[in-house]
Write a structure and sequence with these properties.
The protein is built from two helices and no strands. By secondary structure, the chain is an all-alpha fold. α1 packs antiparallel against α2.
Length: 76
């Protein structure tokens, strides 16, 4: 497995994790609307969305690196 494939796999896994965190944040927000909590008030929904945003910045950086490498290699 080459470096490019490993980075692509990492980007996919992190993107799925960030998407799951966003879904969890909205579910937690809905649960708090009804007076319950899914994660025991450990993190407020805003903090979970901040974590997801940080993970998405990592995904964007990896994707831009892949694009740069393809342009340098001259592949269409």
């Amino acid at each position: 497995m080459d470096k490019q494939r490993i980075l692509h796999t990492i980007a996919q896994v992190v993107f799925i994790g960030a998407s799951a965190a966003i879904v969890l944040a909205f579910l937690e927000l809905g649960a708090q609307f009804f007076g319950a909590s899914l994660i025991g008030n450990l993190y407020p929904p805003g903090r979970i969305i901040e974590l997801a945003a940080a993970l998405l910045v990592l995904v964007i950086a990896i994707t831009l690196r892949e694009i740069r490498d393809e342009i340098r290699a001259g592949r269409p």
